[in-house]
Design goal:
The chain is about 65% helix and about 0% strand. It has ten helices and no strands. One of its GO terms (cellular component) is Fanconi anaemia nuclear complex.
């Protein structure tokens, strides 16, 4: 395991993850492993953290049919507290591309946005959501982002407002969409005309 504190090429790290069976290891071990990862010096590279996010969490998150266990939630929270950018690039992107309702995945994303992610990663989540067609599934995620009341770069706020304006006819009867628009107008009232 000490190899992970040294630079590894992608196939080596993926091979090590496969050897350790990280994608299927018991969740209590996952928590301990993430604690060990966070203590590594130097920090993992972006690419290594992205590979580990995929190996440790992707299959588990995409297969959720009920709320995550406290072990899985603890591991997710600890990992994304330090490596939130690669975590979002891997996990959030995969959840957004997953067809269907994905209710548990959406709830998990909302919880991570509300409680775990750094402001720059909250902005990343917002930009990722705005890159895909808006759906009822994604409205709670946008609501969670707005609930953070982060200062958004003007171009990202403009994209959010433009997306909401363009999508308004498709969500004419959606209470969630109406709440979302109200939240945008409330949180960013000085910037939205």
């Amino acid at each position: 395991l000490s190899l992970m504190s040294h630079p590894l090429c992608h196939p080596q790290l993926e091979g090590l993850c496969s050897f350790l069976q990280l994608s299927t290891c018991p969740e209590p071990f996952l928590v301990r492993f993430c604690s060990w990862l966070l203590a590594l010096t130097p920090d993992l590279s972006y690419t290594s953290a992205a590979i580990l996010a995929e190996q440790l969490f992707l299959r588990r998150v995409l297969s959720l049919t009920q709320p995550p266990s406290r072990h899985l939630m603890g591991a997710l929270s600890s990992f994304c507290s330090k490596y939130s950018h690669p975590f979002c690039r891997v996990l959030v992107a995969a959840v957004l591309q997953e067809p269907g309702e994905g209710a548990e995945q959406t709830k998990l994303m909302c919880e991570l946005v509300e409680e775990c992610l750094e402001p720059h990663s909250v902005q990343l989540v917002l930009s990722q959501v705005l890159e895909v067609p808006l759906s009822e599934k994604l409205l709670p995620v946008l609501q969670a982002v707005l609930g953070r009341q982060e200062v958004l770069p003007p171009e990202l706020l403009d994209l959010l407002v433009l997306t909401l304006c363009q999508q308004a006819p498709a969500f004419a009867t959606s209470l969630s969409f109406a709440k979302l628009v109200t939240a945008v107008l409330t949180v960013y009232q000085s910037q939205v005309s």
